[in-house]
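ok, trying the design again with the full structure, not the truncated one.
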């Protein structure tokens, strides 16, 4: 197993620091190094420890959330799966969803859905994409349909 060691000159390129700065960090104990002959050498693990310590010590700028544009940036998806023995019934539901999509409120933004029928499993899957308001309205519609008693 080969151990990777870095010279001061290699570290100047990796860390983008002057060699005197690196030597000062070695003498201050910020970078662990070994003197081999007349040259200082830094083990790969010691370089990683120094680099991670430097990154952890830096104060990261605080990012403020941009709630004002959240409505323009957000997209929601929902999957509705229905056990359906009859593919014609699944197609009727798909057509109804398409009609709702075509007649949706323009303020809801772009929306679409994908319809997949699995005859071997007797299942219909409707995958909806759009704004939270659009998805909420579709789910409310399905909730009302489920609540109806014949």
């Amino acid at each position: 197993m080969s151990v990777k060691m870095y010279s001061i000159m290699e570290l100047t390129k990796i860390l983008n620091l002057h060699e005197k700065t690196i030597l000062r960090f070695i003498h201050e104990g910020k970078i662990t190094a070994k003197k081999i002959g007349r040259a200082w050498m830094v083990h790969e693990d010691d370089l990683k420890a120094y680099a991670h310590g430097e990154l952890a010590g830096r104060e990261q700028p605080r990012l403020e959330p941009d709630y004002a544009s959240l409505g323009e940036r957000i997209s929601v998806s929902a999957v509705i799966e229905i056990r359906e023995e009859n593919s014609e019934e699944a197609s009727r539901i798909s057509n109804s969803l398409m009609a709702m999509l075509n007649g949706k409120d323009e303020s809801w933004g772009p929306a679409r859905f994908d319809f997949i029928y699995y005859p071997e499993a007797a299942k219909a899957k409707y995958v909806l994409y759009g704004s939270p308001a659009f998805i909420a309205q579709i789910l409310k519609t399905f909730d009302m349909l489920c609540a109806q008693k014949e």
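Keeping the full-length input from now on. The first strand starts at residue 5 and ends at 7.
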